[in-house]
Specification:
Pfam families: GARS_A (PF01071), GARS_C (PF02843), GARS_N (PF02844). It is an enzyme of class 6 (ligase). One of its GO terms (molecular function) is metal ion binding. Belongs to the GARS family. The chain is of the alpha+beta class. It has 4 domains: about 1-95, Rossmann fold (3-Layer(aba) Sandwich), CATH 3.40.50; about 120-185, 2-Layer Sandwich (Dna Ligase, domain 1); about 190-310, ATP-grasp fold, B domain (D-amino Acid Aminotransferase, Chain A, domain 1); about 325-415, Phosphoribosylglycinamide synthetase, C-terminal domain (Glycinamide Ribonucleotide Synthetase, Chain A, domain 4, Alpha-Beta Complex), CATH 3.90.600. Helices cover about 30% and strands about 30% of the residues. The protein contains 13 helices and 23 strands. Strands 12, 15, 18, 19, 22 and 23 form a 6-stranded antiparallel sheet that branches. Strands 3-2-1-4-5 form a 5-stranded parallel sheet, sandwiched between helices. Helix 5 packs across helix 6 (about 105-110) and helix 7 (about 125-135) runs antiparallel to helix 8 (about 160-170). The longest helix has 21 residues, at about 240-260. The termini are far apart.
Amino acid sequence: MNVLIVGAGGREHALAYAFAKSASVTRVYAAPGNAGMENHAECVDIAETDEDSLVAFAKDRLVELTVIGPEATLLAGLADRFEQEGLRVFGPKKKAAMIEGSKTYAKEVMERYHIPTGTYASFSKYNEAEAYVRRQGTPIVIKADGLAAGKGVTVAMTEEEALKALEEVLKNHKFGEAGAEVVIEEFLEGEELSLMAFVHGETVVPMVAAQDHKRAYNNDEGPNTGGMGAYSPVPQFTQKDIDEAVEKVLQPAASGLRQEGSPFTGVLYAGLMMTSAGPKVIEFNARFGDPEAQVVLPRLESDLAQLLITLLEGEKPEPVWSEEAVLGVVAASKGYPGSYEKNHPIQQVPESPLLFFAGVEKKNGIYVNSGGRVLLLSEKAATLAEAQEKVYEKLNELDTGNLFYRTDIGFRALR
């Protein structure tokens, strides 16, 4: 079959890699894709926002399955459009994708369906939000309500930090419309876990767990980013812990969204805090995590395309996962997640079957950076320690003149 991936980042490159090794797949297209994924997909110069051209391309090339990567594209309603055109698509419709598009809506769904999460309040006025923070005290978490590319969250350890974050969002409009409202949440203690599942209606097929590293610098210091690296499995948690999270979080979320009149089809991702009282939801995403996709999909031994079609046809697939560990490290443009310079050559790129590109272009045959997160190098090994050693050995080859990466990805599992 022919498969189309919509998107241009590292998550979409990981999808292209998984589909390219699926026996049932003849051609893999990526729209628009990026220059680094051309060894796994044929990149098509169609923007993620160009619904008419994407639909026409899928029909012209007899695409039998389309997977939508980015959250903004889902919230723009591309899955709705494909479905209206009679095209098979894996990704939630606009209404279901609001589980990620509005943190307030997600909290309301969690309340209605008794999904464990931290206490919260939402505000659109600075004075009211300020008064709430002063009453609650710190530590406390401030989030822009809408999409902010993983950068709209501040874990404030002091009142000063919290009020500065509120000012940035509500007074300085740092995140534009995404910050018209803020959600202020209870600070949860524990260790984070990323748990994704293939979902169609009330059928939930969990993937293997992963752990992301959100902060820019070693020892989880610095600003929040879209993710600086990840690994899978997460040995700190047992299968019983993961089963509990599926039972208390993912399954009720899928059932709840169906009751809301917006059944979910796609990847439902629960960002969890594993507290002493059990798993609690930090956030929901309506698509593959990035960088989680780049460490979870390399562990999938089943044919991804066939798995998704089985699910879409109403059956419950049983994916096979490798027992091996995968650890991946992001190399980002210096200055990320703030401002950074573009068009710097990326020299001495290490070779690996699990090298996933994101913010890159090719100029005169040389990769240059075009985004904040430039590439992610994963390695697979019998243990996480071996995978970590292999990754950093290869990253030593990378010319880091205009790039940086964390040197401690996986430290929680390996300390």
